[in-house]
Amino acid sequence: MTELRNFKLEFVREEQHLMLPAISSFKLTQNLYDALFQYVITEEKEELLKKFISLLEAHIKRRDNSPFSLPISELDFLDEGLEELRLLNWMEVPVAVFQLSLDGDLNNDDYQEELDKILTQLERLMIYSRPAEGNLIWVYPFLLVR
User: Fold this and answer.
1) How many domains does the chain have?
2) Between residues 14 and 33, which one has the greater pLDDT?
């Protein structure tokens, strides 16, 4: 067993997320873009939709087992498009947000190596995903996701 550096998971908050159904494909992303585009009437909302689609495409390309979701508050720009997602079997789920921190000072390479070990261990213990930036992890309710 790999020895892990001490780390801490600190509960930050709970958020309501909209989660992609378990079955997905790249084709789904294009269909989703077409379906949601009708709800986007400003350039600002169009940029937000493009960002959402690119996050979804990146998730699908990674082909890992982590769920894809975003806080509903970040998807409010879709207005009626949120209901469209629900009709496409996207689920609203409560997600626990934790801050992950490692003990001690590490350079970037050592930090990433230690973080990878910890995340591998956490994969055996919980269903989680990581937002694009920062040291947060989103932990999903086991019974709702699997």
Assistant:
1) 1
2) 14
**Stretch (H or E) spanning 44:** helix 43-62
Q: Is 89 left (phi over 0), alpha (psi -120 to 50) or beta?
A: left
Average pLDDT, the chain: 83
pLDDT digits (tens, 9 = 90+) for 71-114: 999 999 988 888 888 888 888 999 999 999 887 777 777 788 88
Q: Kindly state whether residue 1 falls inside one of the protein's structural domains.
A: no
Query: 2 lies in a domain?
Result: no
Distance CA 84, CA 86 (A): 5
144 class by beta-carbon count within 10 Å (0-12 exposed, 13-18 middle, 19+ buried): middle
7-19: strand order across its sheet? 69-71, 7-19, 91-102, 136-139, 128-129
Do residues 125 and 144 touch, judged by C-beta distance below 8 A? Answer: no
What are the backbone dihedrals phi and psi of residue 80, each rounded to the nearest 5 degrees, phi first?
-65, -20
Task: Tell me which residue range forms the domain holding 59.
Answer: 7-145
